[in-house]
């Protein structure tokens, strides 16, 4: 027994798993589930000689949990309890409990779908809803249903709707364990802004150290803020006898241990951590939490194909998890850098990663598994269709799947590598080109944190500078190398080399580096725009900008490895030069030759070119004197689709015709009526506009087309007759003049007319055989608005006399009869009316 709250339900957990293949355990942080449950279940009869695999979402938590369980058994990690994480494995033939990170489980399933020798898979901290945890559970449920009905699954969570997961797992039983926590006093403060997080946190920590006793755990969004706060705290004169420790995933193991262990010799400590410390870890001696209220979260944008880290507000569940760390061992305090009133605006839960993630790796895993439709599996959250489609398009461009959406041999090789599909494609192709070790170095540099420290000079944009510095083929040009990160890159590169089956080489040529990188980012090959230093057009269609003073800003071609920012043009943070020859060599199958036409905006002439292109980047263009007229047509149609009908400079008669036709379709309820809205016209350009483009070679000629006549010819004889009869362009007034009907509102046509021209008319003018009365905008002799009505007879009877009193004084030369119904309609002054009578 461990003396933890989980102990009371351990027999029940073992019994339920003996009776059921699946189980859900709800237990708050501090209950002891991570270490207590696996150790207790080791002795279960149903487990037999099989082992337990336990999934942890983070490397630090996996290593710490395995070490703690080994300590409880009086052993070292790698004996009864071991772990497998990226770049580190400690297991042996004796190992019965393996704590693994999530990608490791997926690879185990791919290599052995039956999970031979595994009796139980535990999903710890499932409430974090990581992408790999969702995928791992979906695959394990399929294995359980189709191959291994004896495989048991246990989902453990601190904050989760257990019933929802239970339903997913065929109504699995749910066990709830009480936690052991002490009261935590929540104290709110003024709101901190993103840009001020390091300064506000450092000040608050300083204040708390003066006012309270005990060690502090401070939550910050990321490594940058942690280092800044660490620097600010060390510079403060009033802080003495306090050890400050950072804590994040990429920190060396020795430094992680220092952050977790108790402070020695009666000292206090301040641990500056990312959200990694929310769950799984118990940090000894913590009594106080200082929470900035932000976290760093990856967000995938399907429109750009990019994943960016965004600093966002924590959810209420995360904020409560953080606060609870102060009450693990004794009553505690939590300081929140936001007002209490703002709590209601926080999301209840963090969104599952699958809703916002790049799904390329997940889709490749499923295709290799044999599943092409995500709905064939059981998911807590089904992968979004837009992100799925984006992933399929990327995998197709990388050669991982064919045009029938089946995984290729190349794709199967890619799926066996522990990297994103982009980098896997580069690694597999790099090996074929005898540049496997260079590809491994590049992949490691792109995977791990930057090997350059932020020094006095600006960190270089050029990836090749990093390759040179890492391989000692060039000096670092004044940039300081981070020795720990260099070691991490070396370890990662060697891991990739082992998985790829290549040997590290002391001598190799970096000349192909840019070409290799372009394999990973075929959609981010950039060509320098003409007369625009630092501005590039990307093969994926977007724009990208490099600082004008950067040495890469004037290179003809770059491959962008790190870009950010919203909008049409992204900011480039890291890139590498690639030659046109390299692009042609590595992307020969993607280069398309075609005839095209473009509009010369200055001359207004359509120019013909024969081009070679990769995506939206033109590699070569040769002028053609007499371009094919069909190609000119297609370019015109493309321009109109992109810029709208306004490009054709339509006149008022064209626009009036369109409105008449729209109104006729609405009011006459014609099902077969053409759509003359802008969207409708653009969707049918091929039908109505294309036949009139046979001799158009200039913008002037295009804009000289009589669009009204073209559209009228698009209507058959019966429709034109119906339109003219029922929805006329103009109607005759009592004066004999013809006034244009305004169809701007298709449901309520308008007639603007001077009031005097309707004298003697008792019935409101109408269209559509009298079924649609017009809305009259009655005007003064100077065509100023007087009255709006759809009831002319009512106007004469009730309103006219008030209008007459006002207008008679303002327009004395005009005719204002006492009885408008028997008066002569006119558009003239009284003097001109008399002349006309003579």
UniProtKB/TrEMBL annotation:
Does the keyword Transmembrane helix belong to this entry?
no
Helicase C-terminal domain location: 204-370
Q: Does the keyword ATP-binding apply?
A: yes
Q: Which UniProt keywords apply?
A: ATP-binding, Helicase, Hydrolase, Nucleotide-binding
GO MF annotations in UniProt: ATP binding; helicase activity; hydrolase activity; nucleic acid binding
Q: Which Pfam families match?
A: DEAD (PF00270), Helicase_C (PF00271), HrpB_C (PF08482), WHD_HA2 (PF04408)
Quote the InterPro entries the UniProt record gives. Answer: DEAD/DEAH_box_helicase_dom, HA2_WH, Helicase-assoc_dom, Helicase_ATP-bd, Helicase_C-like, HrpB, HrpB_DEXH, P-loop_NTPase
Helicase ATP-binding domain residues are 14-178
From the Swiss-Prot or TrEMBL record, give the protein name.
ATP-dependent helicase
């Amino acid at each position: 027994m461990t003396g933890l709250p989980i102990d009371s339900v351990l027999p029940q957990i073992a019994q339920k798993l003996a009776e059921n293949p699946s189980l859900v355990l709800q237990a708050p942080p501090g209950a002891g589930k991570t270490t207590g449950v696996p150790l207790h279940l080791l002795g279960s009869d149903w487990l037999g000689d099989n082992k337990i695999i336990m999934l942890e979402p983070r490397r630090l938590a996996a290593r710490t949990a395995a070490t703690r369980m080994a300590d409880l058994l009086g052993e070292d990690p790698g004996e009864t309890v071991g772990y497998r994480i990226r770049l580190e494995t400690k297991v042996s033939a004796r190992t019965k409990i393996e704590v693994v990170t999530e990608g490791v489980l997926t690879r185990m399933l791919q290599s052995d779908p039956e999970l031979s020798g595994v009796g139980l898979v535990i999903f710890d901290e499932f409430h974090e809803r990581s992408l790999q945890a969702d995928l791992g559970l979906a695959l394990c449920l399929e294995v359980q249903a189709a191959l291994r009905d004896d495989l048991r699954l246990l989902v453990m969570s601190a904050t989760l709707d257990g019933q929802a997961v239970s339903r997913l797992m065929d109504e699995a039983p749910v066990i709830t364990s009480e936690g052991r926590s002490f009261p935590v006093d929540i104290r709110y403060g003024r709101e901190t802004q993103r840009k001020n997080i390091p300064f506000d946190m450092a000040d608050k920590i300083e204040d708390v150290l003066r006012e309270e006793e005990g060690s502090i755990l401070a939550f910050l969004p990321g490594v940058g803020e942690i280092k800044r706060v660490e620097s600010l705290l060390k510079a403060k004169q009033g802080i003495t006898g306090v050890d400050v420790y950072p804590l994040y995933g990429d920190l060396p193991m020795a430094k992680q241990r220092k952050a977790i262990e108790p402070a020695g010799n009666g000292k206090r400590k301040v641990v500056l951590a990312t959200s990694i410390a929310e769950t799984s870890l118990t940090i000894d001696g913590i009594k106080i939490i200082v929470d900035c209220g932000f976290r760093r979260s990856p967000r995938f944008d399907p429109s750009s194909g990019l994943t960016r880290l965004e600093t966002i507000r924590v959810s209420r569940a995360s904020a409560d998890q953080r606060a609870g760390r102060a009450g693990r061992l004794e009553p505690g305090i939590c300081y929140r850098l936001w007002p209490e009133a703002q709590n209601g605006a926080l999301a209840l839960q963090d969104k599952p990663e699958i809703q916002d993630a790049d799904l390329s790796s997940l889709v490749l895993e499923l295709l290799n598994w044999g599943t092409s439709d995500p709905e064939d599996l059981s998911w807590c959250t089904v992968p979004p269709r837009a992100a799925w489609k984006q992933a399929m398009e990327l995998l197709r461009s990388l050669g991982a799947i064919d045009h029938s959406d089946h995984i290729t041999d190349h794709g199967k090789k890619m799926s066996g590598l522990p990297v994103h599909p982009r980098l896997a494609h580069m690694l597999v192709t790099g090996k074929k080109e005898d540049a496997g070790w260079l590809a491994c170095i590049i992949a490691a540099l792109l995977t791990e944190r930057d090997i350059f420290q932020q020094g006095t000079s600006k960190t270089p944009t050029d990836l090749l500078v990093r390759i040179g510095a890492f391989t000692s083929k060039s000096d670092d040009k004044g940039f300081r190398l981070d020795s720990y990160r260099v070691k991490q890159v070396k370890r990662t590169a060697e891991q990739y080399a082992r998985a790829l089956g290549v040997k590290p080489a002391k001598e190799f040529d970096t000349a192909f580096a840019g070409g290799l990188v372009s394999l990973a980012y075929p959609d981010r090959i950039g060509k320098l725009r003409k007369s625009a230093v630092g501005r590039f057009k990307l093969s994926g269609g977007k724009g990208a900008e490099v600082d004008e003073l950067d040495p890469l800003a004037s290179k003809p071609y770059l491959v962008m490895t790190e870009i950010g920012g919203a909008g049409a043009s992204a900011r480039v943070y890291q890139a590498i030069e690639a030659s046109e020859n390299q692009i042609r060599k590595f992307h020969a199958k993607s280069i398309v030759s075609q005839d095209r036409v473009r509009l010369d905006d200055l001359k207004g002439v359509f120019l013909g070119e024969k081009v070679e292109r990769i995506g939206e980047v033109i590699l070569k263009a040769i002028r053609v004197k007499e371009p094919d007229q069909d190609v000119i047509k297609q370019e015109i149609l493309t321009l109109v689709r992109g810029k709208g009908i306004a490009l054709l400079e339509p006149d008022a008669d064209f626009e009036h015709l369109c409105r008449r036709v729209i109104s006729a379709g609405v009011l006459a309820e014609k099902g077969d009526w053409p759509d003359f809205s802008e969207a409708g016209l653009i969707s049918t350009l091929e039908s109505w506009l294309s036949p009139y483009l046979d001799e158009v070679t200039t913008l002037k000629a295009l804009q000289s087309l009589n669009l009204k006549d073209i559209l009228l010819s698009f209507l058959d004889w019966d429709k034109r007759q119906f339109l003219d009869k029922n929805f006329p362009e103009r109607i005759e007034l009592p004066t004999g003049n013809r006034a244009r009907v305004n169809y701007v509102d298709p449901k309520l046509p308008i007639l603007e007319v001077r009031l005097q021209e309707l004298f003697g008319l008792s019935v409101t003018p109408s269209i559509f055989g009298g079924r649609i009365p017009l809305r009259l905008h009655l005007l003064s002799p100077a065509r100023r608005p007087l009255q709006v009505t759809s009831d002319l007879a009512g106007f004469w009877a009730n309103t006219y006399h008030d209008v007459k009193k006002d207008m008679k004084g303002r327009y004395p030369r005009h005719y204002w009869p006492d009885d408008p119904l028997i008066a002569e309609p006119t558009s003239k002054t009284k003097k001109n009316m008399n002349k006309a009578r003579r």
